[in-house]
Amino acid sequence: MAEPRICGVDEAGRGPLCGPVVAAAVILDPARPIAGLADSKKLSARARERLAALIAERALAWSVDEATAEEIDRLNILHASLLAMRRAVAALKIKPDEVLIDGNRCPELTLPVRAIVGGDALEPAISAASILAKTTRDARMLELDRLYPQFGLARHKGYPTAAHLEAIRRHGVPDFYRKSFAPVRQALARPALWADEAP
Q: Which of 54, 135, 185, 186 has a CA that sits 20 to 30 A from residue 159's CA?
């Protein structure tokens, strides 16, 4: 009897002030194991990039999808994250037998699905998904950094650091920001103040 095809799913980018939330779905190949899989947050950027390439090469199937900043504002970050997860699972070229989600909430799927708190450290398929989601989202932030270098996105990846909040106050809020998030909402409410403070 063939081993059940287990799909791991995780997301990256719930906390940042801008950009999409990205989800990945991965079905690993038991015949082609990948050493070193772990929660992406515990790995260096170099290790994540190396493992992401191996996952793309060796997995039975994988996909990455997202929900946009506009969808995050419309749905809220939780429901946008679940939407990105649904999209990632739907894009898989192989149908899994079970889907394992990192966290405590499951997206609505037509497949058996189970949430595992701390799953990105416990289940290799979820670890692999966390790595693909994180590396994909970081790459998106680097693309945006080249277009908007004044915001320092390459350094903080959109998270609300002091330097990032200062950049928003100085330069305003581009369209790819999440306008429902409090620091962005507050900045939008005071455009005249930025104009006075701008150098």
A: 54
Which token pair is 185? 């909402």
End-to-end CA gap in the chain: 69
Q: What is the pLDDT of residues 10-29, one digit of tens each?
A: 999 999 999 999 999 999 99
State which residues form the domain around 182. Answer: 149-192
What is the C-alpha to C-alpha distance for residues 45 and 155, in angstroms, rounded to an integer?
A: 12
Q: What whole-number percentage of the chain has pLDDT above 70?
A: 95
User: For residue 111, what is the DSSP state?
Assistant: S
pTM of the complete model: 0.93
Two tokens, residue 28: 């690993």
Q: Which residue in 72, 95, 92 sits closest to 82, CA to CA? A: 72
Q: Cα separation of 121 and 139, whole Å?
A: 23
**Does residue 177 share a domain with residue 162?**
yes
Distance CA 59, CA 67 (A): 24
140 & 158 share domain: no
- Do residues 72 and 119 share a domain? yes
- How is residue 2 written in tokens? 């063939």
Rounded alpha-carbon distances, angstroms, from residue 138 to 13, 46, 48, 96: 9, 12, 11, 27
Q: Which two tokens stand for residue 142?
A: 């680097």
